[in-house]
Amino acid sequence: MADIRVLTGPEVEQHANRESCWIIVHGKVYDVTDFLDEHPGGSKIILKYAGKDATEAYEPIHPPDAITTNLPVEKHIGAIDVSTVAKVVKEVTEEEKRRQALMDARPPIDNIINMHDFEVVAKAVLTDKAWAYYSSASDDEITIRENRLAYQRVWFRPRVLRDVSSVDWSTTILGQKSTLPVYISATALGKLGHPDGELCLTRAAAKHGVIQMIATLASCSFDDIIDAAAPGQIFFLQLYVNRDREITRKYVQHAEKRGVKGLFITVDAPQLGRREKDMRMKFVDDDAGAKVQENQKDVKKDQGVARAISSFIDPSLSWKDIPWFRSITKMPIILKGIATAEDAVLAYESGVQGIVLSNHGGRQLDTARSGIEVLLEVVVALRQRGYFPNPNFEIYVDGGVRRASDVLKALALGAKAVGVGRPFLYAFCAYGQEGVEKAIQIFRDEFEMNMRLLGARTLSELEPEMVDASNLTSHTVMSPQDNLYQNTYQPLAVAQFKSSKL
Amino acid sequence: MADIRVLTGPEVEQHANRESCWIIVHGKVYDVTDFLDEHPGGSKIILKYAGKDATEAYEPIHPPDAITTNLPVEKHIGAIDVSTVAKVVKEVTEEEKRRQALMDARPPIDNIINMHDFEVVAKAVLTDKAWAYYSSASDDEITIRENRLAYQRVWFRPRVLRDVSSVDWSTTILGQKSTLPVYISATALGKLGHPDGELCLTRAAAKHGVIQMIATLASCSFDDIIDAAAPGQIFFLQLYVNRDREITRKYVQHAEKRGVKGLFITVDAPQLGRREKDMRMKFVDDDAGAKVQENQKDVKKDQGVARAISSFIDPSLSWKDIPWFRSITKMPIILKGIATAEDAVLAYESGVQGIVLSNHGGRQLDTARSGIEVLLEVVVALRQRGYFPNPNFEIYVDGGVRRASDVLKALALGAKAVGVGRPFLYAFCAYGQEGVEKAIQIFRDEFEMNMRLLGARTLSELEPEMVDASNLTSHTVMSPQDNLYQNTYQPLAVAQFKSSKL
Amino acid sequence: MADIRVLTGPEVEQHANRESCWIIVHGKVYDVTDFLDEHPGGSKIILKYAGKDATEAYEPIHPPDAITTNLPVEKHIGAIDVSTVAKVVKEVTEEEKRRQALMDARPPIDNIINMHDFEVVAKAVLTDKAWAYYSSASDDEITIRENRLAYQRVWFRPRVLRDVSSVDWSTTILGQKSTLPVYISATALGKLGHPDGELCLTRAAAKHGVIQMIATLASCSFDDIIDAAAPGQIFFLQLYVNRDREITRKYVQHAEKRGVKGLFITVDAPQLGRREKDMRMKFVDDDAGAKVQENQKDVKKDQGVARAISSFIDPSLSWKDIPWFRSITKMPIILKGIATAEDAVLAYESGVQGIVLSNHGGRQLDTARSGIEVLLEVVVALRQRGYFPNPNFEIYVDGGVRRASDVLKALALGAKAVGVGRPFLYAFCAYGQEGVEKAIQIFRDEFEMNMRLLGARTLSELEPEMVDASNLTSHTVMSPQDNLYQNTYQPLAVAQFKSSKL
Amino acid sequence: MADIRVLTGPEVEQHANRESCWIIVHGKVYDVTDFLDEHPGGSKIILKYAGKDATEAYEPIHPPDAITTNLPVEKHIGAIDVSTVAKVVKEVTEEEKRRQALMDARPPIDNIINMHDFEVVAKAVLTDKAWAYYSSASDDEITIRENRLAYQRVWFRPRVLRDVSSVDWSTTILGQKSTLPVYISATALGKLGHPDGELCLTRAAAKHGVIQMIATLASCSFDDIIDAAAPGQIFFLQLYVNRDREITRKYVQHAEKRGVKGLFITVDAPQLGRREKDMRMKFVDDDAGAKVQENQKDVKKDQGVARAISSFIDPSLSWKDIPWFRSITKMPIILKGIATAEDAVLAYESGVQGIVLSNHGGRQLDTARSGIEVLLEVVVALRQRGYFPNPNFEIYVDGGVRRASDVLKALALGAKAVGVGRPFLYAFCAYGQEGVEKAIQIFRDEFEMNMRLLGARTLSELEPEMVDASNLTSHTVMSPQDNLYQNTYQPLAVAQFKSSKL
Predict the structure, then answer these.
(1) Do B502 and C107 touch (CB under 8 A)?
(2) What is the pTM of this model?
(3) What ipTM, to 2 d.p.?
(4) Cytochrome b5 heme-binding domain: from which residue to which, for each copy (chains A, B, C, D) (predicted)?
């Protein structure tokens, strides 16, 4: 291996334009001149850091090895002598000050009593860009909301007078012990929301015996996460399959070697969805946008963070690839993103160990149905073929879960466990590791309560008859109102107080 | 029995800290030092009264014998010489002044024309804590609202041209005469809302021939209530079964001895639900909360009033206990909180005299169905087995009733009577006994009107064909809106006046 | 007949208290002292006019002969010498000034393009008392709104490519020609809204060939209306049956003699409904109310205008009375207020000539179904028995109609014609006779348009297949929202303008 | 041909009143005195231009040959010497200034990311009159909104793990190539919204291979549009059939000669609907209105732009006319405006080449169903008779489409292509030709995305199983709320921040 060239700040600063553009990332210097027009996020954002240290902007939204993977070796110029780089005095914007004030004014964590509380706090303390990336979903965001609403269409049929002095909501997922019938589902770019990123999840999960699914697009590198694990801590891996299968093979085998217990291959994202909140963020962010656009019509435009980071995903992934995956790993394989009974049957017959009924948190095909709704038809179809129940094939659902009662509904209808993503993400954005622990504790409280009230002492006592899901497939759209009538009608009023003191 | 030691105020005041904590309740002095950490409401609230008279705070939220039951005899220090206790000059808060002003501005009671009016007045004149305790329900408060909405899904099919010159809505409940097909259902902690507490109900019920169900957690003691009864006044008893069955046995047998005519065993509350409005009240109340929490992470936290007062309830209660109840009392036994046809059948077969289809006013398992909806399946299941109709097994429903028309719907579908809780509670919070009387009178007016208009001269003429319940099991959740479209659409406007004087 | 005593103002003024209370109405003096406590509207309102001329207050809310009917002859003191009565200088209230300003600012009548416009204008220019009386409905006003909404659940299936150069929407109702398949339904107390009262309807109806149904409780007397008729003008009569059948007999026979062509007996009002808007009006109106109530608990209380004027209605009316009606008149008899298939069958079998499927404009039994919904089951039931179609038995519906398209839906489903009440009432409150004419013209325009677009050239070409009524019996109540989720979700926004000028 | 008389401005100005009224249009002078009372838009608007050049007002709302067609030749007075006409200094109104400011503040076109964005911009920059004309629909505007909402009732059932590296959404429509399964549907009076009118569509369509349907009521003349076409550009023609069939014959044959590839005969508009927004515009516009109306009750009143321009349409058009159309052209004939399965069958049997399931953008019969809903029953009925699928009979739908996903739903259910009208119209109102191109590009992006996510590589892979349309025929109207209850209920709140900084 050749000696690494060491550069100084002033040397790098000379390459600060379109003709020659160097940047510093994680202490290394790269020549990105030829890459400018290929950058999925557009050239402008790179040029902003031309000749400077871009690490801070790079870190939260790129997989750690993105730059080394994308740039040919000859563009890796060398290392930087950090002492020679002029410190940028970062100006604190009004927006940033407001965020900091809100951070200081957060409710004490003991006042957090449900998952929504975390979301409200996260919304307040996150940057607009981070909030847009996390909260956005595709097109009209129908499906993300449907995910939540679908649970409102399932009602309980609780049983009484069973001795519920002790109730137990622990389970196994892919044969691994879990203190909750819930796993932490993969979410990307955790450092946008908290400096420790996904490690907040890892540490809280370790402490409370919960399984974490590591995202391909995590801000923290895979190894950083595994290195932070407690002894015996269980992880699953979420996989976006790369166009270059060799990269995928290495990644999967490395994960297996480091002890990951399940491979969740994302099958609903041959291309990432159009997420308009995320797309709009680009325009807001970009004050010079309008001017530039007038003159540079053909410049590649940013389509939000999601698009920027996902160009490596292979849209050709198909059922034919499953045997190959089987050949490169002994980990159980789960297909994440099944959305019909037909594909659930194909999945079972392809020999994988499970499926996640998911629409990717509403971020992919809008007006796709919720996982909990799809569960109904999947269980019927698998049962008809004798594929369900089956200890070697597990069904999970994700999307929209905010209460332990949601989880219990999914389990009563046949799911083995439920994936929870954004609530844990918002928990650490709001309160770091402590937030995630609190979230787990709330789930615990709710499981205890709801299982008692439902008359189920263990998860195995949950049964379809405990829920009324007869309204689950009803998608109701209110007919357009007769606005003239509605506006003319004068609603009833209650009794009036003597003065207007009320 | 030993002489009772008599203490002075200054003596008690010396025990005003964590190390030695005495309090005065109802003229007795107790050493609660060891009990501080076991107090379901947390130690802080007790410490506030360390060395002082805590009666005023204690009274409305504890069963009268709570302190004697929970403290070992040796901690009963003695009696207090009242003349030696320094009078606390209670400062009147702004909040309290506002409440008093609202109390003065209440609408004249003759302006009250429906149950909602009582609730609006109660909401205005109650303390925030009382309102939170009374009005709260569990989790997302879906079920409490569903209770009301379910009645909106039942429509009348009124018959005409029947001679309705006289109509009669009196009935019997468990063989006892009632002027209304409605009983006053048990609600707890009445003194939070009115100094006379549940006695307001007792007195109004006596005057109008209505049956009151006494709550285990009433602020007034059982005997106070019975002592206030008119000759021949009918009571039922609501029972939370104690972990210590001996306590329960005595309580039940005492009630029977004092003439109670029916025992309503609550079966839907092995643990009280998480009621977030109630839980949040603790944090608001507790200005030092945040600070304390930083340093005392493991201190037992308050989870609202409901949790604080309910730790004695036995979660192991089961069908196996029914014969024991049969063995200790001759009162008719009713299971309160049945929520499925399956359990209704089990109840019938267990030999009890009736069931209340109830979800505990939405305060227990959220997204459980309403009593009126459950009634449909219960009647079908019992009828199929030849268990219904049966003069020795009555079905009641409660939850969400605000109009006599609601009651008539339940009766048409098979209920014998309907329990009404909060409306009577709010009536006395707003206007004391007079409010309850007014509520009864409104029901009477509405029964007369609606029975005439429905074409039923007596309750026995109510029949299933008088209602259309075909939409009752439809739980409709509106699909997420296309917000962009909705916001872009411009509604029609009516004709404009010449100027903006309108 | 004895000479009539003539009194002077000062003489009458001496009887201005509870002990002796005389009032002047229509130039006659009455001693109402003994009647004070029997007055359905309460004594207080009469005492306000003790010793004075009460005509102005009396007129709009009493049938013209109310006072002579209710008072024994010996209390008819005599005539008044008008010249001796002190003119009361009526003070113009702020409210009255506001109303007058609004009256002046009314939209020009040519700007009125639909029925809602009339209602908006009427609401603005009516007194609060009149608006409350006209617009109110019973209990929660569910049914009055349902009446409108039910039409929104029926959708058109229009046929194309039929030669619709000429379309004709004239018809016959009970064999009488009508230029519209609509009749003016009975509404009470027209003078509350316009000094000419129901005569506005009469004159407009004459001019445009529309049939008016005269209300028993019209402000104008029956004869005044008939006297104002054009030659050959057709009327129907709405009948509230009196407890004293002799009064009813005379009234009916007088109507027949004066040429009325159909007798519509109201069967859904054995007692008038509790209309809370109307009831509340009393309290607002009555500034001394609260004080009085404190001391006079047992005084008969006002329950709104509706109750005050309806005490004569006979609640004993039943199917057994039908033959008697047949015996006293040759007019076709129609039962107004049928609400079930069962009663429609009974009506047919009782030998009457038709029925109105109606819930009394939502003013009687709340949560009764709409006429258009009931029509579905009625047509099925009659058809099954071979009773429908039948030229000698017509079915009408009323309630909620605001558009010609509503009427066409009802006709397609089997109605012969549709009753329209409030829209015509509001039309004359807003613009007098001219308003009613305009309303008729709007209907005409809409009939022409909609029949062309529907592909029906005559009313006989309307057929059930032209509507999709499959959703008509669906009563949808939205499940309670997950408010925490709804409030946390941030809706999508559209593209932003560069500045906030939009 | 006689010499054309040339007149001067002052000569024309002498004919500026009701007795003699000349106007200048497109450089010609016309005597419209006798036509004043026949003008469908009323005489007043003409008199405003009496003796002056009316071209600017005339142009956007009349077919170019309207004046020559309607006026007898002898009223064509001659040509005008333009140099002699006094230039009218047009005053710029406040409204106009506001519009211009908004035009300047439009979002940069790159910030436009969906169809709604165009509508919002168009709404801001259009005159009120243009917005009213474009956006309005008939009666209560139920159907126009239903068109959008119906798509929300169809949900996707996406298939995964299909190799979707390349997806293709091109198709043929009536055998003509189209880069999108979408054609630009006819909308009228384009110059109201942009000076280039429909030519914006023509130029953008040419550039992107999209088919434009030319409207009979386009502001640009048919020939202007065709003259602007690119070589080989494909057009369809929308036809309102004239009462004078000879005019229609010439128009159709001229179109065919100029290369139009399909004749879309509008069959749902024997008369144009009552569009209240459009009708109200007249009153607002017309400040002297109220005054005039007082005195001139019988003057023909304006009923909005739509009525004004449509009097030539023949309401007698019927199935019997189809053979005649067949006889005058070889173009494929499509019936636009079919709304039932019955008429779809008749259309097929009449030998035409296709149908558009349409309700005219909600502008005709209100509460008619949406095209996408009608598609369900049409496909069933045609399939039952062996008429579907059939390469020689294509089904299109239009109305309410805003997303490529909507189009894919229609195609999965059997449509060959989808018509999109207002979105393209609003696109050019907002940004001219460039807007239309952007709209096409957005559709392209969305098709790529959604086909990948749906698992359909070509349009032929779309199949009914890819959608769940089971809720499509459900028209849900929410029952009237219990407002008293709703207003009394206090929603849950989330955790509070320490101060009100949030």
Answers:
(1) no
(2) 0.91
(3) 0.89
(4) 4-81
